[in-house]
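Sample 1 of the test manifest.
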Amino acid sequence: MIRTVVEKILARASGRSGVTAGDVVEPRVDLAMSHENAALVIHQFSEIYRGTGLDMRVWDPSRITIIFDHRTPAESAKTATNQKKVRAFVGEQRIDKFHDIRGDRGGICHQILPEYGYVRPGQVVVGTDSHTTTHGALGAFAFGIGATEMAAVWALGTALNVEVPGTIKVILRGRFAARVCAKDAILHLIGQISAEGANFRVIEFHGDAVDRMPTSGRLVLCNMAMEAGATSGIVPADEETRRYLREEAGVSDDIECVRPDEDASYERSIEIDVSDLSPQIACPHRVDNVKSVDAVEGVKVDQIVIGSCTNGRLDDLAIAAGILRGRKVAASTRLLVFPASWRVYQAALKEGYLSDLAESGATILNAGCGCCLGVHQGALGDGEVALSTTNRNFQGRMGNPDSEVYLCSPAVAAASAIAGAIADPRKAG
Amino acid sequence: MKLGDDVSTDIIYPGRFMATVLPAETPRHAFADIPQFNSRLLKKEIAPGSVIVAGKNFGCGSSREQAVSALKGHELVVAAKSFARIFLQNAVNLGLKTVACPGIEASEGDEVELTVGQGCPVPNASDSENSRREFSPVRVGGGHVINHSTGGRFDLIPLPRPRQEIMDAGGLIPYARVRLLKRPKII
Ligand code: SF4
Protein backbone atom coordinates (compact mmCIF):
# COMPACT_ATOMS: atom_id res chain seq x y z
CA MET A 1 0.00 0.00 0.00
CA ILE A 2 1.09 3.55 -0.72
CA ARG A 3 1.22 5.67 2.42
CA THR A 4 2.04 9.07 3.81
CA VAL A 5 4.39 9.28 6.79
CA VAL A 6 1.58 9.61 9.31
CA GLU A 7 -0.26 6.63 7.89
CA LYS A 8 2.89 4.53 8.20
CA ILE A 9 3.58 5.65 11.75
CA LEU A 10 0.01 5.08 12.92
CA ALA A 11 -0.26 1.67 11.25
CA ARG A 12 2.85 0.48 13.01
CA ALA A 13 1.90 1.94 16.38
CA SER A 14 -1.55 0.35 16.20
CA GLY A 15 -0.30 -3.05 15.10
CA ARG A 16 -2.11 -2.88 11.77
CA SER A 17 -0.83 -3.68 8.33
CA GLY A 18 -2.07 -0.36 6.99
CA VAL A 19 -4.35 2.54 7.80
CA THR A 20 -5.81 5.33 5.69
CA ALA A 21 -7.10 8.77 6.54
CA GLY A 22 -10.38 8.56 8.43
CA ASP A 23 -9.66 5.24 10.18
CA VAL A 24 -9.88 5.31 13.94
CA VAL A 25 -6.93 3.73 15.72
CA GLU A 26 -5.46 3.38 19.19
CA PRO A 27 -1.71 3.80 18.76
CA ARG A 28 0.70 3.00 21.54
CA VAL A 29 2.43 6.14 22.70
CA ASP A 30 6.21 6.43 22.63
CA LEU A 31 6.49 9.68 24.52
CA ALA A 32 3.96 11.62 26.63
CA MET A 33 4.91 15.20 27.49
CA SER A 34 3.37 17.65 29.94
CA HIS A 35 4.43 20.94 31.48
CA GLU A 36 2.97 22.67 34.55
CA ASN A 37 -0.45 21.45 33.48
CA ALA A 38 0.70 18.05 34.72
CA ALA A 39 -1.02 19.26 37.93
CA LEU A 40 -4.38 18.88 36.16
CA VAL A 41 -3.29 15.62 34.52
CA ILE A 42 -2.44 14.20 37.96
CA HIS A 43 -5.89 15.20 39.22
CA GLN A 44 -7.63 13.52 36.28
CA PHE A 45 -5.32 10.49 36.53
CA SER A 46 -6.39 9.90 40.12
CA GLU A 47 -10.03 10.31 39.03
CA ILE A 48 -9.57 7.45 36.54
CA TYR A 49 -8.21 5.24 39.30
CA ARG A 50 -10.89 6.24 41.82
CA GLY A 51 -12.90 3.25 43.05
CA THR A 52 -10.91 0.73 41.02
CA GLY A 53 -8.93 -0.60 43.95
CA LEU A 54 -5.85 -0.55 41.71
CA ASP A 55 -2.49 0.81 42.74
CA MET A 56 -2.04 4.18 41.01
CA ARG A 57 0.89 3.66 38.62
CA VAL A 58 1.70 5.26 35.30
CA TRP A 59 2.02 2.73 32.48
CA ASP A 60 5.70 3.40 31.80
CA PRO A 61 7.59 6.12 33.68
CA SER A 62 10.40 6.10 31.11
CA ARG A 63 8.00 7.32 28.42
CA ILE A 64 6.67 10.25 30.39
CA THR A 65 8.39 13.60 30.41
CA ILE A 66 7.45 16.65 32.47
CA ILE A 67 9.04 20.04 31.97
CA PHE A 68 8.40 23.22 33.91
CA ASP A 69 8.47 26.13 31.49
CA HIS A 70 5.30 28.21 31.39
CA ARG A 71 5.77 30.00 34.70
CA THR A 72 9.37 29.61 35.76
CA PRO A 73 10.37 30.54 38.40
CA ALA A 74 6.82 30.46 39.77
CA GLU A 75 5.03 33.80 39.46
CA SER A 76 2.46 33.07 42.18
CA ALA A 77 1.85 30.93 45.23
CA LYS A 78 -0.73 28.97 43.27
CA THR A 79 1.74 28.01 40.54
CA ALA A 80 4.41 27.19 43.12
CA THR A 81 1.98 24.87 44.90
CA ASN A 82 1.02 23.16 41.63
CA GLN A 83 4.72 22.71 40.82
CA LYS A 84 5.29 21.26 44.28
CA LYS A 85 2.52 18.67 43.74
CA VAL A 86 3.98 17.70 40.37
CA ARG A 87 7.45 17.27 41.90
CA ALA A 88 6.05 14.93 44.54
CA PHE A 89 4.26 12.87 41.87
CA VAL A 90 7.38 12.69 39.71
CA GLY A 91 9.27 11.30 42.73
CA GLU A 92 6.60 8.74 43.61
CA GLN A 93 6.25 7.50 40.04
CA ARG A 94 10.00 7.62 39.34
CA ILE A 95 9.76 9.78 36.23
CA ASP A 96 13.35 10.54 35.18
CA LYS A 97 12.64 12.73 32.18
CA PHE A 98 11.70 15.55 34.51
CA HIS A 99 13.06 19.04 33.91
CA ASP A 100 12.69 21.24 36.96
CA ILE A 101 13.61 24.91 37.25
CA ARG A 102 17.35 24.55 36.86
CA GLY A 103 20.01 26.39 34.90
CA ASP A 104 21.60 23.14 33.73
CA ARG A 105 18.63 21.28 32.25
CA GLY A 106 15.61 23.55 32.19
CA GLY A 107 13.86 25.19 29.27
CA ILE A 108 10.77 25.19 27.11
CA CYS A 109 9.30 21.74 26.57
CA HIS A 110 9.48 22.05 22.77
CA GLN A 111 13.18 22.79 22.97
CA ILE A 112 14.01 20.19 25.65
CA LEU A 113 12.45 17.28 23.74
CA PRO A 114 14.65 17.64 20.65
CA GLU A 115 17.69 18.82 22.61
CA TYR A 116 17.73 15.74 24.85
CA GLY A 117 17.02 13.32 22.01
CA TYR A 118 13.70 12.25 23.54
CA VAL A 119 11.98 12.29 20.14
CA ARG A 120 12.93 9.91 17.32
CA PRO A 121 11.65 9.52 13.80
CA GLY A 122 8.60 7.26 13.53
CA GLN A 123 7.43 7.76 17.10
CA VAL A 124 3.97 8.70 18.32
CA VAL A 125 4.38 11.68 20.64
CA VAL A 126 1.55 13.33 22.56
CA GLY A 127 1.76 16.45 24.69
CA THR A 128 -0.61 18.55 26.74
CA ASP A 129 0.37 21.55 24.70
CA SER A 130 -0.93 22.52 21.31
CA HIS A 131 2.55 23.22 19.92
CA THR A 132 3.51 19.57 20.39
CA THR A 133 3.28 19.66 16.58
CA THR A 134 6.87 20.98 16.79
CA HIS A 135 8.35 17.49 17.15
CA GLY A 136 7.19 16.47 13.71
CA ALA A 137 10.40 18.24 12.68
CA LEU A 138 12.20 15.02 13.67
CA GLY A 139 9.90 12.81 11.63
CA ALA A 140 7.61 11.78 14.49
CA PHE A 141 3.83 12.06 14.59
CA ALA A 142 3.39 14.52 17.43
CA PHE A 143 0.13 16.15 18.45
CA GLY A 144 -1.46 18.10 21.26
CA ILE A 145 -4.08 16.65 23.58
CA GLY A 146 -6.00 17.84 26.64
CA ALA A 147 -5.12 16.99 30.23
CA THR A 148 -7.85 14.36 30.62
CA GLU A 149 -6.72 12.59 27.49
CA MET A 150 -3.18 12.63 28.85
CA ALA A 151 -4.42 11.07 32.09
CA ALA A 152 -5.83 8.21 30.00
CA VAL A 153 -2.47 7.87 28.21
CA TRP A 154 -0.65 7.73 31.55
CA ALA A 155 -2.99 4.95 32.64
CA LEU A 156 -3.18 2.90 29.44
CA GLY A 157 -0.15 3.77 27.31
CA THR A 158 -2.28 4.28 24.23
CA ALA A 159 -4.01 7.27 22.74
CA LEU A 160 -7.71 6.48 22.53
CA ASN A 161 -9.80 7.12 19.44
CA VAL A 162 -7.28 8.78 17.18
CA GLU A 163 -8.65 9.53 13.74
CA VAL A 164 -5.95 9.11 11.10
CA PRO A 165 -5.69 12.61 9.65
CA GLY A 166 -5.56 13.42 5.98
CA THR A 167 -2.28 14.92 4.78
CA ILE A 168 -1.57 18.19 3.00
CA LYS A 169 1.75 18.26 1.17
CA VAL A 170 3.62 21.56 1.27
CA ILE A 171 6.64 21.91 -1.00
CA LEU A 172 9.10 24.72 -0.34
CA ARG A 173 11.38 25.34 -3.30
CA GLY A 174 14.31 27.65 -3.89
CA ARG A 175 16.82 29.48 -1.71
CA PHE A 176 15.87 32.01 0.93
CA ALA A 177 17.19 35.54 0.43
CA ALA A 178 19.51 36.82 3.17
CA ARG A 179 17.62 37.47 6.44
CA VAL A 180 14.54 35.61 5.24
CA CYS A 181 13.98 32.28 6.95
CA ALA A 182 11.68 29.40 7.92
CA LYS A 183 9.49 31.74 10.01
CA ASP A 184 8.69 33.84 6.96
CA ALA A 185 7.81 30.74 4.93
CA ILE A 186 5.41 29.39 7.53
CA LEU A 187 3.78 32.78 8.17
CA HIS A 188 3.29 33.10 4.43
CA LEU A 189 1.70 29.64 4.26
CA ILE A 190 -0.68 30.38 7.15
CA GLY A 191 -1.67 33.62 5.44
CA GLN A 192 -2.48 31.59 2.31
CA ILE A 193 -4.47 28.73 3.84
CA SER A 194 -5.90 30.54 6.94
CA ALA A 195 -5.90 29.70 10.64
CA GLU A 196 -8.31 26.87 9.92
CA GLY A 197 -6.77 25.72 6.65
CA ALA A 198 -5.25 22.53 8.04
CA ASN A 199 -7.73 21.75 10.85
CA PHE A 200 -7.87 17.95 11.35
CA ARG A 201 -5.03 17.55 8.81
CA VAL A 202 -1.29 16.94 8.92
CA ILE A 203 1.08 19.13 6.93
CA GLU A 204 3.97 17.13 5.44
CA PHE A 205 6.85 19.40 4.39
CA HIS A 206 8.92 18.69 1.32
CA GLY A 207 11.08 20.47 -1.25
CA ASP A 208 14.72 21.43 -1.67
CA ALA A 209 14.40 24.38 0.73
CA VAL A 210 13.32 21.94 3.46
CA ASP A 211 16.02 19.42 2.51
CA ARG A 212 18.67 22.11 3.03
CA MET A 213 17.05 23.47 6.19
CA PRO A 214 18.68 22.65 9.52
CA THR A 215 16.50 21.01 12.17
CA SER A 216 16.19 24.34 13.97
CA GLY A 217 14.28 25.75 10.96
CA ARG A 218 12.16 22.61 10.58
CA LEU A 219 11.16 22.97 14.22
CA VAL A 220 9.81 26.44 13.35
CA LEU A 221 7.76 25.07 10.43
CA CYS A 222 6.19 22.31 12.51
CA ASN A 223 5.72 24.54 15.57
CA MET A 224 3.63 26.97 13.58
CA ALA A 225 1.76 24.32 11.59
CA MET A 226 -0.47 24.42 14.66
CA GLU A 227 -1.46 27.98 13.77
CA ALA A 228 -3.00 26.71 10.54
CA GLY A 229 -5.03 24.37 12.76
CA ALA A 230 -2.97 21.30 11.81
CA THR A 231 -3.07 18.17 13.96
CA SER A 232 0.64 18.08 13.31
CA GLY A 233 3.38 19.20 10.99
CA ILE A 234 5.92 16.65 9.85
CA VAL A 235 9.24 16.70 8.02
CA PRO A 236 10.07 13.16 6.87
CA ALA A 237 13.31 12.19 8.62
CA ASP A 238 16.52 12.32 6.57
CA GLU A 239 20.28 12.71 6.92
CA GLU A 240 19.86 16.09 8.60
CA THR A 241 17.60 14.49 11.23
CA ARG A 242 20.29 11.89 11.87
CA ARG A 243 22.96 14.58 12.05
CA TYR A 244 20.94 16.66 14.53
CA LEU A 245 20.16 13.71 16.79
CA ARG A 246 23.76 12.49 16.80
CA GLU A 247 25.66 15.77 16.93
CA GLU A 248 23.33 18.06 18.80
CA ALA A 249 21.22 15.69 20.91
CA GLY A 250 23.94 13.11 21.64
CA VAL A 251 21.91 10.10 20.48
CA SER A 252 24.02 7.02 19.81
CA ASP A 253 21.48 4.26 19.12
CA ASP A 254 20.00 3.37 15.73
CA ILE A 255 17.91 5.99 13.98
CA GLU A 256 15.42 4.68 11.46
CA CYS A 257 13.96 7.22 9.04
CA VAL A 258 10.31 6.73 8.10
CA ARG A 259 9.72 8.18 4.62
CA PRO A 260 6.47 8.56 2.68
CA ASP A 261 5.95 6.42 -0.42
CA GLU A 262 6.77 8.19 -3.66
CA ASP A 263 3.19 8.43 -4.88
CA ALA A 264 1.37 8.60 -1.56
CA SER A 265 -1.99 10.32 -1.90
CA TYR A 266 -2.35 13.78 -0.47
CA GLU A 267 -5.53 15.73 0.05
CA ARG A 268 -3.92 18.79 -1.36
CA SER A 269 -0.53 19.95 -2.52
CA ILE A 270 0.81 23.49 -2.12
CA GLU A 271 4.02 24.75 -3.64
CA ILE A 272 5.83 27.87 -2.48
CA ASP A 273 8.94 29.36 -4.07
CA VAL A 274 10.85 30.88 -1.18
CA SER A 275 13.46 32.62 -3.31
CA ASP A 276 11.33 35.71 -3.80
CA LEU A 277 9.77 35.67 -0.34
CA SER A 278 10.06 38.89 1.68
CA PRO A 279 10.03 39.02 5.50
CA GLN A 280 6.45 38.31 6.60
CA ILE A 281 4.48 39.82 9.48
CA ALA A 282 1.30 38.47 11.10
CA CYS A 283 -0.75 41.49 12.09
CA PRO A 284 -3.15 41.82 15.06
CA HIS A 285 -5.20 39.93 16.15
CA ARG A 286 -4.98 37.01 13.75
CA VAL A 287 -2.11 34.70 12.89
CA ASP A 288 -3.39 34.49 9.32
CA ASN A 289 -3.50 38.26 8.87
CA VAL A 290 -0.11 38.08 7.17
CA LYS A 291 1.49 40.93 5.24
CA SER A 292 4.84 41.54 3.64
CA VAL A 293 7.07 43.72 5.83
CA ASP A 294 6.83 46.67 3.42
CA ALA A 295 3.09 46.97 4.13
CA VAL A 296 3.65 47.61 7.85
CA GLU A 297 7.12 49.17 7.89
CA GLY A 298 7.23 52.13 10.25
CA VAL A 299 4.53 50.95 12.69
CA LYS A 300 5.80 52.06 16.12
CA VAL A 301 6.36 49.29 18.66
CA ASP A 302 6.61 49.58 22.45
CA GLN A 303 8.02 46.13 23.12
CA ILE A 304 9.97 43.63 21.06
CA VAL A 305 10.27 40.03 22.12
CA ILE A 306 12.82 37.50 20.88
CA GLY A 307 12.30 34.01 22.25
CA SER A 308 9.81 31.14 22.68
CA CYS A 309 9.52 27.62 21.35
CA THR A 310 9.28 29.13 17.88
CA ASN A 311 12.34 31.38 17.66
CA GLY A 312 14.38 31.29 20.86
CA ARG A 313 17.09 28.92 19.62
CA LEU A 314 20.79 29.52 19.24
CA ASP A 315 20.69 30.46 15.56
CA ASP A 316 17.85 32.90 16.25
CA LEU A 317 19.93 34.63 18.91
CA ALA A 318 22.93 34.60 16.55
CA ILE A 319 20.91 36.43 13.87
CA ALA A 320 19.62 39.00 16.36
CA ALA A 321 23.07 39.55 17.88
CA GLY A 322 24.56 39.91 14.40
CA ILE A 323 22.18 42.75 13.59
CA LEU A 324 22.32 44.48 16.99
CA ARG A 325 26.07 44.18 17.67
CA GLY A 326 27.54 47.61 18.24
CA ARG A 327 24.16 49.31 17.87
CA LYS A 328 21.48 50.46 20.27
CA VAL A 329 17.88 49.54 20.87
CA ALA A 330 15.80 52.69 20.20
CA ALA A 331 14.95 54.63 23.36
CA SER A 332 11.27 54.48 22.50
CA THR A 333 11.11 50.70 22.69
CA ARG A 334 12.23 47.85 24.95
CA LEU A 335 13.71 44.55 23.78
CA LEU A 336 13.15 41.38 25.81
CA VAL A 337 15.12 38.23 25.01
CA PHE A 338 14.34 34.86 26.50
CA PRO A 339 16.30 31.86 25.23
CA ALA A 340 14.36 28.64 24.63
CA SER A 341 16.43 26.61 27.08
CA TRP A 342 19.31 26.98 29.51
CA ARG A 343 21.53 25.01 27.16
CA VAL A 344 20.76 27.60 24.49
CA TYR A 345 21.37 30.33 27.09
CA GLN A 346 24.78 28.92 28.00
CA ALA A 347 25.80 28.43 24.39
CA ALA A 348 24.72 32.01 23.56
CA LEU A 349 26.71 33.20 26.55
CA LYS A 350 29.84 31.43 25.33
CA GLU A 351 29.40 32.72 21.79
CA GLY A 352 29.04 36.27 23.11
CA TYR A 353 25.52 36.73 21.70
CA LEU A 354 24.03 37.57 25.06
CA SER A 355 26.59 40.26 25.80
CA ASP A 356 26.10 41.75 22.31
CA LEU A 357 22.37 41.86 22.94
CA ALA A 358 22.67 43.21 26.50
CA GLU A 359 25.14 45.90 25.38
CA SER A 360 22.66 47.03 22.76
CA GLY A 361 20.08 47.51 25.51
CA ALA A 362 18.20 44.20 25.45
CA THR A 363 16.86 42.79 28.71
CA ILE A 364 17.92 39.14 28.90
CA LEU A 365 15.36 37.03 30.75
CA ASN A 366 15.57 33.50 32.02
CA ALA A 367 15.00 30.58 29.67
CA GLY A 368 11.35 29.55 29.49
CA CYS A 369 8.06 30.69 27.99
CA GLY A 370 8.50 34.17 29.41
CA CYS A 371 5.94 36.66 28.15
CA CYS A 372 4.71 34.49 25.26
CA LEU A 373 1.44 33.67 26.97
CA GLY A 374 1.04 36.75 29.09
CA VAL A 375 1.28 35.24 32.55
CA HIS A 376 4.79 35.89 33.65
CA GLN A 377 7.12 38.73 32.73
CA GLY A 378 6.74 41.43 30.14
CA ALA A 379 3.01 42.19 30.13
CA LEU A 380 1.92 45.01 27.83
CA GLY A 381 0.38 48.31 28.93
CA ASP A 382 -3.01 49.53 27.72
CA GLY A 383 -2.90 50.39 24.04
CA GLU A 384 0.68 49.17 23.61
CA VAL A 385 2.02 47.42 20.54
CA ALA A 386 4.41 44.47 20.59
CA LEU A 387 6.44 42.79 17.87
CA SER A 388 7.39 39.25 18.73
CA THR A 389 9.08 36.13 17.37
CA THR A 390 6.52 33.96 19.19
CA ASN A 391 3.70 32.10 17.45
CA ARG A 392 0.38 33.64 18.54
CA ASN A 393 -1.10 37.09 18.42
CA PHE A 394 -4.65 36.44 19.60
CA GLN A 395 -6.23 39.34 21.41
CA GLY A 396 -5.00 39.33 25.01
CA ARG A 397 -2.21 36.83 24.30
CA MET A 398 0.48 38.90 26.00
CA GLY A 399 -1.62 39.53 29.08
CA ASN A 400 -3.59 42.60 28.02
CA PRO A 401 -6.69 42.49 25.81
CA ASP A 402 -6.14 46.19 25.11
CA SER A 403 -2.85 45.69 23.26
CA GLU A 404 -1.66 44.49 19.88
CA VAL A 405 0.88 41.84 18.92
CA TYR A 406 2.64 41.50 15.55
CA LEU A 407 4.58 38.31 14.81
CA CYS A 408 7.84 38.14 12.88
CA SER A 409 11.24 36.48 12.44
CA PRO A 410 14.27 37.20 14.68
CA ALA A 411 15.86 39.29 11.91
CA VAL A 412 12.81 41.56 11.68
CA ALA A 413 12.66 41.82 15.48
CA ALA A 414 16.31 42.87 15.72
CA ALA A 415 16.14 45.40 12.89
CA SER A 416 12.95 46.84 14.37
CA ALA A 417 14.55 47.17 17.80
CA ILE A 418 17.07 49.60 16.32
CA ALA A 419 14.36 51.55 14.51
CA GLY A 420 11.78 51.47 17.32
CA ALA A 421 9.30 50.58 14.60
CA ILE A 422 8.70 47.64 12.28
CA ALA A 423 11.66 47.56 9.90
CA ASP A 424 12.92 45.48 6.99
CA PRO A 425 16.04 43.57 8.09
CA ARG A 426 17.31 43.48 4.49
CA LYS A 427 17.92 47.22 4.80
CA ALA A 428 19.49 47.10 8.29
CA GLY A 429 23.09 46.82 7.13
CA MET B 1 -24.21 35.26 23.02
CA LYS B 2 -23.05 35.58 19.44
CA LEU B 3 -19.39 35.26 18.54
CA GLY B 4 -17.59 35.43 15.21
CA ASP B 5 -14.98 33.15 13.61
CA ASP B 6 -11.76 31.93 15.23
CA VAL B 7 -12.69 32.51 18.87
CA SER B 8 -9.44 31.49 20.55
CA THR B 9 -8.87 29.77 23.88
CA ASP B 10 -7.19 33.02 24.96
CA ILE B 11 -10.62 34.67 24.68
CA ILE B 12 -12.55 31.80 26.26
CA TYR B 13 -10.06 31.37 29.11
CA PRO B 14 -7.10 33.79 29.18
CA GLY B 15 -3.66 32.26 29.79
CA ARG B 16 -3.08 34.28 32.92
CA PHE B 17 -5.67 32.13 34.75
CA MET B 18 -4.09 28.86 33.72
CA ALA B 19 -2.69 28.22 37.18
CA THR B 20 -6.31 27.56 38.13
CA VAL B 21 -6.91 24.02 37.04
CA LEU B 22 -9.73 22.42 39.00
CA PRO B 23 -13.02 22.23 37.07
CA ALA B 24 -14.83 23.61 40.12
CA GLU B 25 -12.76 26.81 40.01
CA THR B 26 -12.38 27.59 36.31
CA PRO B 27 -15.91 28.84 35.50
CA ARG B 28 -15.31 32.18 37.19
CA HIS B 29 -12.71 33.11 34.56
CA ALA B 30 -14.82 32.19 31.51
CA PHE B 31 -14.54 35.00 28.95
CA ALA B 32 -12.65 37.08 31.53
CA ASP B 33 -11.53 39.56 28.86
CA ILE B 34 -15.11 40.25 27.78
CA PRO B 35 -16.14 41.71 31.15
CA GLN B 36 -19.82 42.28 30.33
CA PHE B 37 -20.23 38.63 29.35
CA ASN B 38 -18.18 37.34 32.25
CA SER B 39 -20.20 39.33 34.79
CA ARG B 40 -23.51 38.17 33.33
CA LEU B 41 -22.29 34.59 33.63
CA LEU B 42 -21.19 35.10 37.22
CA LYS B 43 -24.47 36.79 38.16
CA LYS B 44 -26.28 33.83 36.62
CA GLU B 45 -28.12 36.15 34.24
CA ILE B 46 -27.41 33.64 31.50
CA ALA B 47 -29.52 30.56 32.17
CA PRO B 48 -27.97 27.10 32.17
CA GLY B 49 -28.56 25.50 28.81
CA SER B 50 -28.04 28.79 26.97
CA VAL B 51 -26.37 28.40 23.62
CA ILE B 52 -23.26 30.21 22.50
CA VAL B 53 -23.57 30.59 18.75
CA ALA B 54 -20.18 30.97 17.07
CA GLY B 55 -18.61 30.96 13.64
CA LYS B 56 -15.82 28.83 12.27
CA ASN B 57 -12.89 27.34 14.18
CA PHE B 58 -14.24 27.88 17.70
CA GLY B 59 -11.66 27.11 20.39
CA CYS B 60 -8.58 27.52 18.22
CA GLY B 61 -5.23 27.91 19.91
CA SER B 62 -4.14 26.26 23.10
CA SER B 63 -4.91 22.76 24.37
CA ARG B 64 -5.94 24.16 27.77
CA GLU B 65 -8.82 22.15 29.10
CA GLN B 66 -9.87 25.02 31.32
CA ALA B 67 -11.54 26.57 28.26
CA VAL B 68 -13.89 23.59 28.22
CA SER B 69 -14.42 23.10 31.94
CA ALA B 70 -15.15 26.83 32.37
CA LEU B 71 -18.01 26.70 29.85
CA LYS B 72 -19.24 23.40 31.16
CA GLY B 73 -19.39 24.84 34.67
CA HIS B 74 -21.92 27.40 33.45
CA GLU B 75 -23.81 24.60 31.69
CA LEU B 76 -23.49 26.35 28.36
CA VAL B 77 -23.94 24.68 25.00
CA VAL B 78 -21.77 25.73 22.08
CA ALA B 79 -23.17 25.67 18.55
CA ALA B 80 -20.50 26.66 16.04
CA LYS B 81 -20.00 26.42 12.31
CA SER B 82 -16.90 24.36 13.09
CA PHE B 83 -14.51 23.64 15.96
CA ALA B 84 -10.75 23.47 16.32
CA ARG B 85 -9.64 19.88 16.79
CA ILE B 86 -8.22 19.93 20.30
CA PHE B 87 -11.11 21.97 21.71
CA LEU B 88 -13.63 19.54 20.23
CA GLN B 89 -11.79 16.54 21.60
CA ASN B 90 -11.59 18.13 25.06
CA ALA B 91 -15.32 18.88 24.90
CA VAL B 92 -16.08 15.21 24.18
CA ASN B 93 -13.75 14.10 26.93
CA LEU B 94 -15.28 16.38 29.56
CA GLY B 95 -18.86 16.22 28.35
CA LEU B 96 -19.34 19.84 27.27
CA LYS B 97 -22.26 19.98 24.89
CA THR B 98 -21.00 21.17 21.52
CA VAL B 99 -22.74 20.90 18.19
CA ALA B 100 -21.20 21.63 14.81
CA CYS B 101 -23.75 23.26 12.63
CA PRO B 102 -22.14 24.71 9.49
CA GLY B 103 -25.10 26.83 8.43
CA ILE B 104 -26.13 28.24 11.77
CA GLU B 105 -27.31 31.86 11.92
CA ALA B 106 -28.65 33.54 15.05
CA SER B 107 -28.53 36.87 16.87
CA GLU B 108 -28.19 37.50 20.56
CA GLY B 109 -31.45 36.76 22.39
CA ASP B 110 -32.88 34.47 19.71
CA GLU B 111 -34.57 31.38 21.00
CA VAL B 112 -32.83 28.34 19.59
CA GLU B 113 -33.70 24.71 20.07
CA LEU B 114 -31.35 21.79 19.62
CA THR B 115 -32.76 18.48 18.59
CA VAL B 116 -30.30 15.64 18.64
CA GLY B 117 -30.36 11.87 18.95
CA GLN B 118 -30.02 10.08 22.28
CA GLY B 119 -27.56 11.66 24.67
CA CYS B 120 -26.04 14.73 23.23
CA PRO B 121 -24.02 13.86 20.18
CA VAL B 122 -21.05 16.06 19.68
CA PRO B 123 -20.51 16.25 15.97
CA ASN B 124 -17.25 16.21 14.20
CA ALA B 125 -16.22 19.58 12.93
CA SER B 126 -14.62 18.06 9.89
CA ASP B 127 -16.87 17.53 6.95
CA SER B 128 -14.58 15.37 4.87
CA GLU B 129 -15.82 12.17 3.28
CA ASN B 130 -13.45 10.28 5.50
CA SER B 131 -15.01 11.36 8.73
CA ARG B 132 -18.49 10.95 7.36
CA ARG B 133 -17.83 7.25 6.97
CA GLU B 134 -17.51 6.86 10.70
CA PHE B 135 -20.97 8.12 11.63
CA SER B 136 -23.10 5.95 13.75
CA PRO B 137 -26.23 5.31 11.67
CA VAL B 138 -28.56 5.32 14.68
CA ARG B 139 -27.78 8.91 15.46
CA VAL B 140 -27.63 10.42 12.04
CA GLY B 141 -31.30 11.37 11.77
CA GLY B 142 -32.89 14.24 13.57
CA GLY B 143 -29.92 16.44 14.38
CA HIS B 144 -30.71 20.06 13.83
CA VAL B 145 -30.94 23.48 15.38
CA ILE B 146 -34.12 25.51 15.03
CA ASN B 147 -33.96 29.25 15.50
CA HIS B 148 -37.49 30.00 16.69
CA SER B 149 -36.92 33.73 16.42
CA THR B 150 -36.10 33.65 12.71
CA GLY B 151 -37.66 30.36 11.67
CA GLY B 152 -34.25 29.10 10.45
CA ARG B 153 -33.51 25.41 10.62
CA PHE B 154 -29.92 24.16 10.38
CA ASP B 155 -28.62 20.60 10.20
CA LEU B 156 -25.98 19.30 12.56
CA ILE B 157 -22.98 17.24 11.57
CA PRO B 158 -23.28 14.13 13.73
CA LEU B 159 -20.60 12.67 15.93
CA PRO B 160 -18.24 9.96 14.66
CA ARG B 161 -18.93 6.69 16.44
CA PRO B 162 -15.77 6.44 18.57
CA ARG B 163 -16.42 9.88 20.01
CA GLN B 164 -20.01 8.93 20.66
CA GLU B 165 -18.79 5.97 22.72
CA ILE B 166 -16.87 8.33 25.01
CA MET B 167 -19.90 10.59 25.37
CA ASP B 168 -22.13 7.62 26.12
CA ALA B 169 -19.74 6.46 28.82
CA GLY B 170 -20.16 9.85 30.52
CA GLY B 171 -16.80 11.25 29.40
CA LEU B 172 -13.26 10.02 29.07
CA ILE B 173 -12.65 9.39 32.76
CA PRO B 174 -15.29 6.66 33.19
CA TYR B 175 -14.43 5.37 29.70
CA ALA B 176 -10.73 5.06 30.55
CA ARG B 177 -11.59 3.52 33.94
CA VAL B 178 -13.47 0.69 32.25
CA ARG B 179 -10.57 0.13 29.88
CA LEU B 180 -8.11 0.09 32.78
CA LEU B 181 -10.09 -2.56 34.61
CA LYS B 182 -10.26 -4.70 31.46
CA ARG B 183 -6.52 -4.49 30.94
CA PRO B 184 -4.66 -7.77 31.33
CA LYS B 185 -2.80 -7.90 34.63
CA ILE B 186 0.92 -7.31 34.34
CA ILE B 187 2.80 -9.59 36.68
S1 SF4 C 1 6.86 29.53 24.38
FE1 SF4 C 1 4.72 30.15 24.15
S2 SF4 C 1 3.84 28.87 22.57
FE2 SF4 C 1 5.77 27.93 23.23
S3 SF4 C 1 5.17 26.42 24.80
FE3 SF4 C 1 5.67 28.33 25.84
S4 SF4 C 1 3.71 29.42 26.03
FE4 SF4 C 1 3.43 27.82 24.48
